[in-house]
# Entry
Amino acid sequence: MTIARITAVTVITFAGFFGAGLADGIAAADPAPGRLGPYEALATCEREGNIGMETGEWADYECTGAAGAWYIAPRN
# Structure
């Protein structure tokens, strides 16, 4: 493959992942009154879990559950 093709494939791949993240964020902007869930998508649960780590709410976390009902399980 040429460098131009590799670059094009990389850009398209990242654009796809970025677009999927935006669609997920729009659909689940306010997922639930509770901070720990439930969240529709795993990506939303992980994003909220990372925000909780950044703000010092918990030291680590795990998203548990299944599609449509993901919960943040904090670990301190």
User: Anything to note?
Assistant: Helices lie at 3-27, 42-54.
